[in-house]
Amino acid sequence: MTDGQDLEALWSRMRASGISNWDDVRPRLSERCDPVINARFKVPANSTVFTIGSCFARNIEENLAKLGFDLPMLALQLPANEKVNSRAANIVNKYTPPAIWQELKWCANILRRDGIVTLEDCRDLYYDVDGLCFDNVAHTRFPVTPERMVERRQHIFDVFRHVFDSDCVVITLGFTECFYDRTRDHYVTNGILTNDALRASLSGDVEFQSLSFEQAHGFIRKSLDLIWELNPVCKVLLTVSPVPLKATFLPEDVILATAQTKALLRTVAGEVVGTDPRVGYFPGFERVMLTRSWDVFRNDLRHVSDFVVKDIVAQLTQTYFDADAAHRTRFEDKIKTAQASETQFNVHLLAAQTALEDQELEVAKAEATQALEQAILNPDINNGQLKAWRVLDAVATAKNDWKARDTALSHMAQLRPHCSSWIKLAYNNFRLKRFEMMQSNIDMAVKTIPLDHPNAQGHIDKLSKLLAANTPDA
Fold it and tell me: What residues contact 417, with CB distance under 8 A and at least 6 apart?
């Protein structure tokens, strides 16, 4: 597009610009990628900002909240056994363009009606598994009763409805590989594939799709049109998540598949921004992927380091958000200490893991304890305490120190109350002959057993028999 300018004007603008020529990029690429951003709008301080999209949207919302903005998604609450990790909102991550569109359309239909969710509203959103509901658009492994399905979807609606009254909506695009249920004309989460029986039963109805540009662009365009239909003055900010695919269903290297999906989504964002002045773009993807250091990622080489997230959000707010001066000062002070804190944590954790592999148990314990201290001081280190406790648990197990293992497992169960945590605690309490606590652990394991766990029920049955054999008066 030339926007009506003649070639001479375009040439002159390119030559005069300080950011148009690659010869001038070194200062913006030497240590980290720091592109110049031409912001189209400013969001006033203390505004309401709604975030939707991939897991990177969770990073953005948590940090924007610390700058004094109102983030409705942080109001989403779930019982511990329904969470996939410490963030309740991860259950409604929307990684693909059709997932974003479907959630917005579903929410708008109920909002226009009466705001009350019924089981009929949820019919396409779950698969029946022996009378229980396996949510096919939420990221959860646990089926729930029909009553709980409606209750949870009502809560999700009560949060998502704020997309239609927020001052700004931030949409983070994740990937383009998705699964489509032909019988329902409905896209479902990849999570349904983790259950063997469910995957087998749906093999004739659900197909894999790698979205084309036209498909992805169409879903995002419809999503924006719907937002503006109900919220005409809303500002929209698009980003592309820098988090690579965990796995690909295409018959190629996941590195190539990641490049393809991110390139397509970046092109979609560029097309939308280039044709609609109501939309801005923030280059979080570019800032991470074009920075020539693996320090921008955590140890899994996928998720972005916490201090990098803070740095990205700092630039995001400086560019698009008028944060309160006091909040901004405190936030920027935290950025200065976050990198040092996370670096110390990683140093101690790696030393602990290395010592554990070498069977240097006392060294592993000391290093893991120091990592734990760093994680407690800096709760923004993602799953920091859990990672440190896992090493301490392994040390206790290697030393047959069941009391120390009880401490580690109890903390791990509090941090991540999944079925496997309760099973481990039950076995440990059996060793300690604490049979009353063992029964409580078994009850929690039963309550949180996922559909796709290959041997959880076998462990529960074994533990129940051990308990019965050792408590004859029960």
Answer: 80, 81, 444, 448
